[in-house]
Design goal:
2 domains; 1 helix; 12 strands; globular; signal
Length: 189
């Protein structure tokens, strides 16, 4: 048995303190989402910027979604981000790519707040694969916002991103394997 001396106890306390500090740092990095891995010039929204009461029924306050959007079996990340300057916001997806690793793709941007406040305007959620009634593709000159039964349908094999303004317009971004990019359809105006 080793003798317990003041120097042994001090070394044990220092070692324990170093291990606790290391574990706290790892835990904080995981839970904060870390701005370090975000696209340059962008940041996570603050709690105040996502405090609208229409966001209360979402754990992420409709600012983050996780799903496999491109069907490669790897979970992707969708986020509403704010610019570091200027008050703008954008929908970004960190998409897995087989050869290059994950990459950030900006799907839409609102340059600055339309309402004159710093609050997030748009929100995101995940839509499960299935049959989706839509009004039109993003580039179409006319849209059919009639009843779902009269609308064209889109059969999606993978999860997609619902991009919406709470209690207002909504669109859907989905990954097209044929075009190797996200495409957008409008659901409501």
């Amino acid at each position: 048995m080793s003798a317990t001396t003041p120097s042994n106890m001090r070394a044990a306390r220092c070692g324990l303190l170093a291990m606790l500090l290391f574990l706290c740092t790892i835990s904080a990095a995981r839970t904060s989402g870390g701005d370090a891995d975000l696209p340059a010039g962008w940041r996570l929204p603050t709690d105040k910027e996502s405090s609208d009461t229409a966001r209360e029924d979402s754990r992420s306050r409709y600012t983050e979604v996780r799903a496999d959007f491109n069907g490669d079996g790897v979970e992707d990340l969708g986020r509403m981000l704010k610019t570091r300057t200027g008050g703008g916001e954008a929908l970004w997806v960190r998409l897995s790519q087989a050869r290059q690793g994950p990459a950030w793709i900006k799907l839409d941007e609102i340059p600055r707040s339309e309402r004159g406040s710093a609050d997030l305007i748009m929100a995101i959620d995940t839509v499960k694969p299935g049959l989706i009634a839509y009004a039109c593709f993003d580039t179409a000159p006319d849209c059919n916002f009639g009843a779902d039964a009269q609308r064209p349908k889109l059969r999606l094999a993978d999860a997609s991103l619902l991009y919406f303004r709470p209690e207002s317009a909504a669109s859907l971004f989905f990954w097209s394997n044929k075009h190797r990019k996200f495409m957008r359809v409008w659901l409501s105006d």
